[in-house]
Structures are given as structure tokens and as C-alpha cells.
Write a structure and sequence with these properties.
alpha/beta, six-stranded parallel sheet, 37% helix
């Protein structure tokens, strides 16, 4: 069987609240959302789109959803009829058309821009009282510097205290808390090689600029730096690097690897069906070179990302784009030249930077600079800082990773999007009257098609009863976009990778390999197509190949047609932007696939607008997607070196148990998992395990 793989959300067993306070600048009548009270208690490509401030506008109408569309049943349940009735009633006064002909443009949505507001004397007094009664682990010395090491992978999920690695919500929350915390004098960032997409980098960079509005210092130390790290560092006031630092500002590349030649040599013949001429998933298996369409798509993505980098970095450093391009093309690697031309502040070792911070804080040379790290500061509640939320609640449901329909017994909590668990969260929000709106935060390249479609249906039902906003992180493509398109409004970053409306499925013909190694396989079957997936020792018969292709084509047409329906777009127009093509957020917005550019704060501002909540009113964000720590996570937190539990093993365990069938993914192809079938063979399992590890 073939399966369409879309994005999934991790299983969450407990709810956690975070608060968001909105402040309005008295001198600016435009609504700006403040993240000062955004409370976060404890991955791959990204789109970063910047939003311009907008003036107050009447609440745009909520897009009306006909939840019966694409329903296989001829009759509607009472619950569905009620949902559609509610949606139609709201649609009479509030209707958003997200197609390219929409009357609601990006600039008409509230910007969600952070506005730092000094606390008045009463709020300062209450904060001091709360600090006196704070829990022991929440107490921080006055004049402390917040230190954070930004490197490696950054998850879009909330993390438990036993989980290793960095969490984007916690990083952003810590920065905002530090802006208002009277005990924090500034931030010292250690920035090293990052393994996340541009969307997350853009979100952190935006928060750095927000923090600078508080008047406190923020300094970056970069011992190893390429374009992504420098993009983040240049947002800080000062940049320091040791004389031996690795600087590689040589430009950006994109590459594709191909295994067809290897398969030909060992006797493996991949048989792949894909729909969408830009759907490159599977190219690494069936081609030896890059296709013309894939080259066109990747070139456009590369130009968008590189152009954005040049524009933002040159603007931040007060240089021209031409200056930056010339610098890169000179192949500069000497740290001394970086200093001479003003790309870094100075050449200093870590201890020397700390000595400079000591002087900045006015401390004697014999006293250490008080510091608190990322993990410890994450335990400080926003309530302690007077950043509590309001009575209006907005649900936040996070969906990160590959999509599967059910959870495997060996999978780790929070390691992907499990359709059945995500649907539980959606239904909880839909049935509850406490939530005024919902935000679906997506960071996924796709996954199981069936799971994606089931989640799409539930999100549509939710959107018929209350505003639903999709907020994209690094990537929301293929199955990830399938989820997002069910929302009333889609918000993406400028460089979020999205779209990829297409499907791919495949099988391996291992006949020649079996001959070489002396392996034989015989199959007895009943039914014309019984051997369609079982007979991996021979190629597909013409009638089998036709059925195989029609199955994938049907999945693609459903995906495309539902995308057109969800985005209020004619099918022929959707076909022009579909065909498996990946877009950056900025390009997707110009083609009607995305409504607005920005991060989570803008999604919250739009949710408030559509829920008729004043922009200056505080709201409480209720996180429904926080995983409870599992035994592997607890052991990993104690010491991965002792128990041998790491992220690679976790992902491998999940891949070994969760994937089968037709996939709708952006960055690769998954083949039928046969471990659970009687006709499974160890050779095929080894090949699949190898492909999963790439």
C-alpha cells in the first residue's frame, strides 16, 4: 500500500499555559503586539517574512468553511451541521478570502510588533514583592548577565526539563523576560554552528532587535561562523571573535546527491511514481543528475535566501549590498580583516569579553560577573516578573517533525506529529468554550498522506467554530502545508519553505540483486493485484504499474483540489503553483498560498483581531502540545553517555516503526515499511534502514 506522508504533531499529555501581554505605545495609534509577557514553559527549513505595521482596521471576516466538502458520506452528522451553521453565521459578518484577489492584504493585518513599555511605579513595586516570595530557583542576583549558547539543532517544540537541546519558544521567552527583568543587565550570546532553518534564525533575530529596545546590552561571541551564524550575530550591538575563529563567509550553496548509479551496480531498480514536475523527492533514487525543473526550483530558493541575507546583513551593518558581495567574493578568512572592515567589533577571547562585561557593569576586577545560563533562567516564571496574561485564552498547538497516523510503541514523545494525538488536541479546543481562537504552529516537511488529510478535516471543523491561524516555522511543505491550508489565515516567515503540493511513492525491484547473491523468493497469491507490493523480485507488470500510477495520481489530485478549495482558488490556478514546487514564504504570499509574513507574535495579533479581542488587551496562550518526559528523555537528561540514548537513536527507532506507503514530503522519499508484513525480507529492511539514515 502506498501512503501520503504529511506533517505530524507530538503527543502531549499535559497542558501548559504561557501568557502574552500586548502593549500599545501612547505615541503610536497603530496596534502593536507586545511579547513582553509571552510565557513559554518548557526543525528543517524555514520561511521568514517581515510584516509592516498596519493601522487599525475593522475585523476582517472569517473565511467561511464548508466542512462537508470532500466528505465521502452523503449525510452530515449533527455536530458537522452545527459547525457549518456556526461558520456560515460568522461568515456573514467576517469573511477572509485568502486568494490572490483577496481584499485583505498583508499590510491590513496587525503587525504584532513588539513595543517595550517601562513599568510604572506600582508595577515595579509588585514585581519586587513577587521576587521576594519567588521560589529558590527563581532568585537571580541584581546585575546578572543572561548567557545563552545558540548552536546545533533548535526545536520548535516546548521542552521538558529532562530534554536536551534548545527550544525556540524558550529562547524567545528568555529574551523577552530578560528585557523586563530588573535583575538582568544584559545578554551574552555564544553563537556557533547552527543546524536549524532560516525561519527559526529569523525569529531569534527578531527577538534580539526587540530586546535592544529595553536599552540593555546584548553582545555576541562567535568562535565559528558561517552565513547563518553571522546573520544572527550582526543583530547584536557588538560582535567578538577569537583570533583563531573559523569564519567562512563564502556564500551559500545547495546540493543534491544521487544513488541511481550505485543501485545499478548492485542490481537494485527503484520504481517511483510522483506527481508534480517539481516534486524532487525520489530523484536521488531514480536519477543520476539533477532534473531541469529541480534545478529551476532550487536556484530560485537559493537566490531568495542569498538575496535576503545580503540585504539584511548589509543594512544592519550600515554597508551597501555591493560592499558585502565584494567582501564575500574576496574569500576573506582572516579575522583581522573582519575587524578592519567593520564586520566584527574586535578580536577577543571569551575571558577577555567577560572582563569587558565586568567593566561595563562597574564591578571590581576581583569580582566575578554574575551569570545565569539558558536552562536555569528558563525556570523563572513570567508571573514573577509581572508578565501575566489576561482572561482571554488562545490555544497553541505545535506540530513539528514528520507526520504519521499512529504512534509506534518505540517512538519517543515529541519526536514527530502523530495524527491521532493531534486530532485529540484539535477536538479539545473545538469542544471547549474557554478558547477564543487557536494557533497551529507548524514545522514539518510532510509525511503520511492519510494522517495529513484526517488532520486537515479536523482543523476545518475547528475553523468553522472559531478563528484558526497557521503559523509556519522553518518548513511547512507538502504534508505540512496540507495542515496549514485548513486554517483561516496562514502566517509564514520570509524564508519559510512551504508549498510542495505533490505526492510520491515507490518500491524497489531487487531481482538482479537476488540473482547476484543467490537469493530466491517465490510467492503464491490470489487476486490480480495481490503481488503489487509483495513481489520485489520482479518489475511491475504493465497493469500493476498502471494501478500504481493511478493511485499516486489520485492522491495528488485530492491534495491539489483541497488546496484550491481551502485557499478559495480555482483548480487551474492552484495547479500553476502546485506540481510539487517548494516556495519561500515571500514567494508563496505573492501567489496566494500564504496570507501574511511574520512570526508567532503576528499570528497572535491576527488571532486577536479575528476573535474581536482588542490589540492592547492581554491574552493567555495555552500550550496544548507540551510533551511529558518519557523514560528515554529522563535517562538522556541524566546522561546520554551513560545510557546511550541520543537524538539519532530516537529518530531511528521512530523511522523503523512508523513509515509505510505513499508519501507527501518535501525532502525525500519513504518506501513501504514491510516489517509488519509476512512477506517482509531482511535485505529490503536493510536498504530501507540505510535510506532512512541518509
Amino acid at each position: 500500500m502506498s501512503r501520503l506522508l504529511l506533517l505530524h504533531t507530538p503527543h502531549i499529555t499535559s497542558f501548559r499555559r504561557r501568557t502574552l501581554t500586548s502593549f500599545l505605545s501612547n505615541s503610536n495609534p497603530k496596534p502593536h503586539l507586545s511579547l513582553s509577557s509571552l510565557q513559554f514553559h518548557h526543525h528543517r527549513f524555514s520561511l521568514s517574512l517581515f510584516l509592516s505595521p498596519s493601522s487599525p482596521s475593522p475585523s476582517p471576516p472569517l473565511r467561511t468553511f464548508s466542512v462537508s466538502a470532500f466528505d465521502s458520506s452523503e449525510t452530515k452528522s449533527e455536530e458537522e451541521e452545527e459547525a457549518e451553521k456556526v461558520g456560515n453565521e460568522e461568515g456573514k459578518t467576517k469573511k477572509i478570502n485568502s486568494s490572490s484577489n483577496s481584499s485583505v492584504t498583508d499590510s491590513e493585518y496587525p503587525s504584532g510588533e513588539f513595543q517595550f513599555e517601562e513599568f510604572n511605579w506600582w508595577r515595579k513595586f509588585t514585581v519586587k514583592l513577587k521576587m521576594l516570595t519567588a521560589l529558590p530557583w527563581e532568585r537571580v542576583r541584581k546585575g546578572t548577565v543572561l548567557t545563552m549558547k545558540i548552536r546545533g539543532q533548535i526545536s520548535d517544540q516546548l521542552k521538558s526539563r529532562f530534554s536536551s537541546g534548545l527550544s525556540l519558544p524558550q529562547i524567545c521567552e528568555n529574551i523577552i523576560k530578560a528585557a523586563y527583568d530588573p535583575r538582568i543587565s544584559g545578554i551574552y550570546l555564544h553563537i556557533e554552528t547552527l543546524s536549524c532553518g532560516w525561519g527559526k534564525v529569523e525569529e531569534i533575530r527578531r527577538h534580539i532587535f526587540d530586546f535592544k529596545k529595553s536599552g540593555k546590552f546584548i553582545v555576541a561571541y562567535v568562535p565559528a561562523c558561517r552565513e547563518k551564524e553571522y546573520y544572527l550575530a550582526c543583530a547584536c550591538e557588538e560582535i567578538y571573535a577569537p583570533s583563531s575563529a573559523y569564519f567562512s563567509l563564502f556564500g551559500l550553496t545547495v546540493q543534491a546527491s544521487f544513488l541511481r548509479g550505485v543501485f545499478d551496480n548492485v542490481g537494485i531498480d527503484p520504481e517511483v511514481q510522483r506527481f508534480g514536475k517539481y516534486k524532487s523527492a525520489g530523484d536521488q533514487l531514480i536519477r543520476k543528475t539533477m532534473s531541469k525543473e529541480n534545478c529551476e526550483m532550487l536556484t530560485a530558493l537559493l537566490e531568495n535566501i542569498y538575496g535576503n541575507w545580503l540585504d539584511k546583513v548589509s543594512s544592519t551593518k550600515g554597508k551597501t549590498r555591493e560592499d558585502l558581495e565584494n567582501f564575500i567574493n574576496d574569500g576573506v578568512y582572516q579575522v583581522e580583516r573582519l575587524k578592519e572592515e567593520g564586520w566584527i567589533t574586535n578580536i577577543r577571547y571569551d575571558d577577555e569579553v567577560i572582563s569587558m562585561l565586568r567593566e561595563k557593569l562597574g564591578l571590581p576586577k576581583d569580582k566575578q560577573v554574575p551569570m545565569i545560563d539558558y536552562r536555569k533562567y528558563s525556570r523563572v516564571r513570567e508571573w514573577t516578573l509581572g508578565l501575566s496574561g489576561g482572561k482571554d485564552q488562545i490555544a497553541v498547538i505545535r506540530a513539528s517533525g514528520s507526520i504519521s497516523r499512529v504512534r509506534s510503541p518505540l517512538s519517543v514523545s515529541g519526536s514527530g506529529i502523530v495524527g491521532e494525538q493531534f486530532i485529540e488536541k484539535i477536538r479539545t479546543v473545538r469542544e471547549s468554550k474557554r478558547y477564543k481562537a487557536a494557533i497551529i504552529r507548524i514545522d514539518s516537511p510532510g509525511g503520511d498522506a492519510l494522517a495529513s488529510d484526517l488532520m486537515w478535516r479536523e482543523i476545518r471543523l475547528l475553523a468553522a467554530s472559531k478563528p484558526v491561524i497557521a503559523s509556519m516555522s522553518d518548513v511547512a511543505a507538502s504534508g505540512g502545508y496540507y495542515m496549514a491550508m485548513a486554517a483561516g489565515t496562514i502566517v509564514a516567515e520570509n524564508l519559510t519553505l512551504t508549498g510542495s503540493i505533490g505526492v510520491v511513492t515507490g518500491r524497489f525491484n531487487l531481482g538482479k540483486l537476488y540473482e547476484k547473491i543467490g537469493f530466491n523468493k517465490e510467492i503464491l497469491s490470489r487476486g490480480k493485484y495481490a503481488e503489487l507490493l509483495a513481489a520485489d523480485q520482479r518489475p511491475l507488470r504493465p497493469d500493476e504499474a498502471e494501478l500504481f500510477a493511478k493511485s499516486a495520481q489520485n492522491a495528488y489530485m485530492q491534495f491539489r483540489d483541497k488546496a484550491a478549495f481551502s485557499r478559495s482558488m480555482p483548480v487551474d490556478k492552484m495547479e500553476e503553483v502546485a506540481q510539487g514546487r517548494v516556495w519561500t514564504g515571500k514567494d508563496a504570499a505573492s501567489r496566494g498560498l500564504v496570507d501574511a509574513i511574520g512570526g508567532l507574535s503576528r499570528a497572535v495579533a491576527i488571532a486577536k483581531l479575528k476573535a474581536n479581542i482588542p490589540q492592547d488587551r492581554q491574552v493567555t496562550l495555552v500550550e496544548l502540545s507540551r510533551p511529558s518526559p518519557t523514560l528515554p528523555e529522563v535517562l538522556s537528561g541524566i546522561g546520554s553517555t551513560l545510557v546511550g540514548v541520543d537524538s539519532t537513536l530516537k529518530e531511528l527507532l521512530q523511522e523503523l516503526t512508523n513509515s509505510e506507503g505513499v508519501q507527501a514530503r518535501m525532502d525525500g522519499i519513504m518506501f513501504q515499511r514491510l516489517e509488519g508484513y509476512s512477506y517482509a525480507n531482511p535485505i529490503f529492511a536493510l536498504i530501507k534502514d540505510y535510506m532512512s539514515s541518509l
